[in-house]
Every structure is written in C-alpha cells, then in structure tokens.
Design brief:
Blueprint (H helix, E strand, L loop, with lengths): L14 H11 L3 E7 L3 E7 L4
Antiparallel strand pairs: 1-2
C-alpha cells in the first residue's frame, strides 16, 4: 500500500490496493502481466453469483 511506480507528486498509491482488496473480498482475483518498456496488463476476474 502507498507504493507508486512513477514520480507524479500528487499520487497516493492506494488505487490498485483498494481494487485488489475489494475484488478478492467478493471472491474474484486479479492477474498482472508486465514487461519492461512494453507495459502492463491487469486482468480482473469476477465471480458469477
């Protein structure tokens, strides 16, 4: 929590933490694929209820 991956001065670093926390609380999951100098893909899976 509170970790940022860029130098924006107004960043708080809790956005991804909050999303992960809420998704996992509802039974879902998040996968991350990242490659240096190419980018990052976040996959968010929800549970069918």
């Amino acid at each position: 929590m509170y970790k940022t991956f860029h130098s924006n001065a107004d960043s708080r670093g809790i956005g991804l933490f909050l999303v992960k926390n809420q998704i996992e609380t509802m039974g879902g999951r998040i996968e991350v694929e990242s490659e240096v100098s190419k980018g990052t893909v976040f996959k968010i899976y929800f549970v069918n209820l």
